Amino acid sequence: MEQIINEKKTLSRQSSSFRLRSPSLNALRLHRVFDLFDKNKDGFITVVELSQALSRLGLDADFSDLKTTVDSYIKPDKTGLRFDDFAALHKTLDESLFGGEESCCDGSPESDLEEAFNVFDEDGDGFISAFELQKVLKKLGLPEAGEIEQVEKMIVSVDINHDGRVDFFEFKNMMQVVLVPSS
């Protein structure tokens, strides 16, 4: 009986993993993030909207640096990032964080991931619990935050060592899978 339960857990984990690697689901998730950041629902993300979204996540980026980066992706006749511009920015960030040998050796992508991990690891114990993940999802206004059972399923989908929480290695692995740009 225990073997059957373990096989079902393995199948469940595999299907969750497959869903994360699906390019169409990655695009759908990127659209959801875009829609969350586009507070006034005008189809554009302004530098101010992006800055506010990052602040809600505890990532206080320097506004002038953010503006310089984002402005380079905004079309001349537009006031903000359209979805395609946002996707291009996302792809560039993904390549700089996870692409090629150059990005793995200078230390900064790892520290960026550690900073992102620390947003979720609110108590600083080196793990992301379901409760911590739920708090961040609530800050983002995501409906998944409503039910702890849903949040626990999210944890299980990336919890490689089955300890009920996400450590940095699991987080890094998840980010590499989720942020793979769709072709």
From TrEMBL:
Asked if the Swiss-Prot or TrEMBL record annotates the protein with the keyword Calcium, the reply is yes
Pfam families this protein is in? EF-hand_7
What UniProt keywords are attached to this protein's entry? Answer: Calcium, Metal-binding, Repeat
Q: Which PROSITE patterns match?
A: EF_HAND_1 (PS00018), EF_HAND_2 (PS50222)
Which InterPro entries does the entry link to?
EF-hand-dom_pair, EF_Hand_1_Ca_BS, EF_hand_dom, EF_hand_pair_protein_CML-like
| Domain EF-hand: from-to ranges | 25-60, 108-143, 146-181
Q: What is this protein called?
A: Probable calcium-binding protein CML43
Q: Which species? A: Camelina sativa (False flax)
